[in-house]
């Protein structure tokens, strides 16, 4: 295995270091930082190859995130959060993938999974309303994946809350620019506000199906082992890796991280 992503992460370290001040000033990743992540393949690492993505191994993706977060915690965090979304979208119905990637396969979505908003089942899909926080990288995205509980499902004769992901397109929500923090300022982790948006059935998936390893629509067109991995493993490892990288950057002598980049 070539681990090209890791080699690239080490190569672009000086560029990422130089963008930290602008990222912090803007309270989001600068256009330059986003372009670095996009042009070097990090944001599309886990996207299916049939959509022009890297379809890289999870291990290579994680190792590259650790190296990036050592240099720029904000860039590493956004690369991990945004970079894992194409993997989830690959599990969705082909129609949802076409809506996001049909015109531009480099279109990215942000997310906020904490179920603070409301979802209601209606004919053909769901109605969503409410506010979701900490949607990292949302300024550069054209869609958002939101978490909400909608009803209950019977699992082994026990009713459990049906926690679901809902994919909304960029005309179905607004961003509340309320990210004023001391650390990770460059992540742009702002609130997402939704007012009575309709989400069709094919743009929603149950996390119960993820947890039980049930077949998912996207696996028909994306049948490879990467898209058979457990949701919790892929997502939680991606998030933890950027935190690990940032911690290494602060603690290991000779780190790339500048003293004034908090």
Structure explained in plain terms:
- The chain has helices spanning 4-11, 13-26, 31-39, 58-71, 73-89, 94-101, 207-212, 231-251; strands at 110-112, 118-122, 125-135, 143-155, 158-169, 174-176, 190-200, 204-206.
- It is α+β, with helices and mostly antiparallel strands.
- The protein folds into two domains: 4-104 and 221-251, Butyryl-Coa Dehydrogenase, subunit A, domain 1; 110-216, Butyryl-CoA Dehydrogenase, subunit A, domain 2.
- It has a four-stranded mixed beta sheet with strand order 1-4-5-8.
- β4 and β5 form a beta hairpin.
- α1 (4-11) runs parallel beside α4.
- The longest helix has 21 residues, at 231-251.
- The two termini are 34 Å apart.
Q: Nutshell version of this structure?
A:
By secondary structure, this protein is α+β, with helices and mostly antiparallel strands. Helices cover 37% and strands 23% of the residues.
> What is the 3D form?
globular
Total tally of structural domains: 2
Q: If classified by CATH, what would the architecture of the largest domain be?
A: Orthogonal Bundle
Mean pLDDT metric: 94
Uncertain ranges: 257-262
Give the helix tally. Answer: 8
Work out the radius of gyration: 18 Å
Helix content: 25-40%
CATH superfamily of the largest domain: Acyl-CoA dehydrogenase/oxidase, N-terminal domain
Give the total of beta strands.
Answer: 8
Under the CATH scheme, which class of the largest domain?
Mainly Alpha
Largest sheet composition: 4 strands, mixed
Q: Give the SSE order as H and E letters.
A: HHHHHHEEEEEEEEHH
Give the class from helix and strand content and strand pairing: alpha+beta
Strand share of the residues? 15-25%
Widest sheet: strand order? 1-4-5-8
Alpha carbon gap, first and last residue: 34 Å
